[in-house]
Amino acid sequence: MLIDHWPLLGLRVRTARLELRVPTEAELAELADVAAHGVHEPGQQPFLVPWTDVPPAQRARTVLQRHWRWRGNWTPENWTLDLAVFEQGRPVGVQELAARDFATLREVSTGSWLGLEHHGRGIGREMRSAVLHLAFAGLDAGEARTASFVDNPAPLGVSRRLGYRPDGITRDVLQGRAVVSQRLRLTRQDWEQTDRPTVTVTGLEPCLELFGTVKPGHPDR
C-alpha cells in the first residue's frame, strides 16, 4: 500500500474541532477551491510570496503545485509538511511545518493560510497550536520560528498569545516596494508555559525517519 512507502499519509494531528493531515488528491482539489474563493480581503497582500495576487483559477493551481512540490522534494535534511486543516470533515486551510537540518538544529518554521470565510473564529490559533504540539511534543523540537508583516496584526496577535518573542526584523521587496516583517521565535520553555488546547497525534512513529529524528533502521528516537 502507498502508506507503507509514504507513512506521512497516516499522520493525524487533532484538536477538539480540527484535524490536520496530508490531504488525498480529491481533498487537495477541495483545498484549491477554498483558495480560489479567497484567503484574505481584496487589496491586501499578507504574504511575501504573492501567490494570492493572481486570478482564482491560477491561485487554485498554485495550491496544488506547492503541495506536490513539497512532497516531491522531501528529504530528512530539508522538508516541508503541508497539512490540510479540516473542520467537521471540510477543508478550511493549510498549516505548514518546515525544517532544514532538523536532526542537528531542532528548529522548525511555520506558515499557514485560511479560507476567508473561516477568519475570525480562532481557527488560525488552534491549527498553529496543533502543529506546534507536533513539533515540540512529537518531534522534540527546541525552537519554532515564524514571521509576519508588521502591519498584519492578526497573525502577530496569534503568535504573541502562543508565547513567541520578537526575534528582529527582515526587510524585503514586494511588488516594487519595501516591506518589513517581524520575526518571532518560540522556545520549548515558553511553549510549555502557554495555555494551549489539548492535541493528540497519531501515526507519527513510522514517520520519524522522514523527519530526520532517527537514523534508518534505528529503533529509538
What does this molecule look like?
The protein is of the alpha+beta class and 221 residues long. Helices cover 32% and strands 30% of the residues. The chain contains 8 helices and 9 strands. The protein has a 9-stranded mixed sheet with strand order 7-8-6-5-4-3-2-1-9, sandwiched between helices. Helix 2 runs antiparallel to helix 3 (56-72). The two termini are 25 Å apart. The model is unreliable at 216-221 (pLDDT under 50).
Can you give keywords for this protein?
221 residues, Aminopeptidase, disordered C terminus, globular, alpha+beta, 9-stranded mixed beta sheet, single chain, 8 helices, 9 strands
Summarize the amount of helix as a percent range: 25-40%
Task: Name the CATH superfamily classification.
Answer: Gcn5-related N-acetyltransferase (GNAT)
**Overall tally of domains:** 1
Number of strands: 9
Q: How are the strands of the largest sheet arranged?
A: 7-8-6-5-4-3-2-1-9
Structural class: alpha+beta
Biggest sheet overview = 9 strands, mixed
| CATH class value | Alpha Beta
CATH structural architecture = 3-Layer(aba) Sandwich
Low-confidence stretches: 216-221
Helix and strand succession?
HEEHHEEHEHEHEEHEH
